[in-house]
Hints:
Layout: E1 2-3, H1 8-21, E2 27-32, E3 35-40, E4 50-52, H2 59-72, E5 83-91, E6 94-101, H3 108-126, H4 140-150, H5 153-167, H6 199-211, H7 216-222
Parallel strand pairs: 4-5
Antiparallel strand pairs: 1-6, 2-3, 5-6
Helix pairs in contact: 1-3, 6-7
Amino acid sequence: SLRGTLDVRALERALDRVLLRHDALRTRIRLVDGRPMQTVAPHEPFRLPVVDHRGEVDPEASVHARLGELARAPFDLGEARPHRIELERLEDDRHVLAFVAHHVVVDGYAVDRIQEEVLDTYARLARGETVEPDLPPISYLDYAAHQRRCLVDEVIRPQLEHFRTKLEGLPPLLELPTDRPRPPRTRTEGDVVIVPLPSSTRSAVEELARRHDLTPFMVLLAA
Length: 223
């Protein structure tokens, strides 16, 4: 949520700088011979879509509905950017910047980092400063390739054997008490199920996450 006078052009340029800096935000993932392969698309100047809700009967509800549409729409990871960015205008001095990204390229830590970079770059641009793209010395792809080279066979083999031994004998399927009978043919389609949590449960989950330096998502996934 953004309150006060907003320089939309400066915000657009700040977002453009961040998209140029981070290869992950320009990554496409395609299947090649049945295996996912990632490629980084060339940077294209970013144009920030602005949706004006000022003429709506209930701008708040209109923005909420639009954010739901952006969050629910599937990503085509092979052809499109793995994120959606859109500015929602409620009033002349009140906006909401929507940022939706696929979890394959962005996690909670990355969201905080992106927000910091956008706000810092926007503030400098809004003051009229010249902000040159601060590109990292190596790309994340280079870093990942370096890690893979470090995990040579004699290093990774004993680690794999450790977990093979630990996991040996486990059932091939995890049967949960709430599962329905499994169909003859397993499908992989997903769905969204909204389950409201009592405030006491939510507080307990957040406290457990803080205690172990985790995100609530990780706690709920483990549960």
